[in-house]
Structure formats: structure tokens, C-alpha cells
Amino acid sequence: MTGPQTGGPIALAVARGTLTTAALAGVARTDHGAAAGLLNTGKQAGGALGLAGLAAVAAPTLAHPDGLPALVDGFDRAFLGMAALMIAVAALAGARPRDPTRDTWSTTEA
Which residue segment(s) compose the domain that 74 sits in? Predict the structure, then answer.
């Protein structure tokens, strides 16, 4: 239990700056504020939708007569589903065609 509780936040801390830089690459400096706002709105909306999805999958087990074991099983299914979705999104992102003429890590004016 300690591994996921410490590994997750560390991974997020390491990835957050890189992902923000990648998302803002190619955006004109005059539009960085709007682009950052959209990025943060997407993070917040994604987190809210993800939590709602987890709760929707786990909620039917709340009224189960088995009590706590059924609830744990519901959360197991919810987190396994979330992991499968994350793997699918990562595979789609990796399979995305790239434009070799575009330097996505450039910080110059667009």
C-alpha cells in the first residue's frame, strides 16, 4: 500500500512540468495564458470525470449484503478498469503519427 501512495505523487510531480511544457510547445507567447487555462481546465474536468466513473463502478456494491468484502471488490473492479483505460490511452498516444518537420520541444515564438 505504501508504494502506490508514495509512487503516484512522485510520478505526478516529475511528469507535471514536462507535460505542461509539451502542451504549451508551439503556442505563441501571447497565448500562453489561455493555453495554460485550457490545460488546467482539462486536468480538473478529467479528474472529476475519473472520480465520477470510479464511484459509478464501485457504488452498486455499497448496498450489497456481504458488506465490506463486496465494497473492496467493487473498488478493485473500478481501479482495474481505470488502469485498463490508462493503458489504452497510452497506447493510442504512442501510436499517434508524428510530423517530423515540427519541433514540438521548441520554445520559440510560433
Answer: 17-95
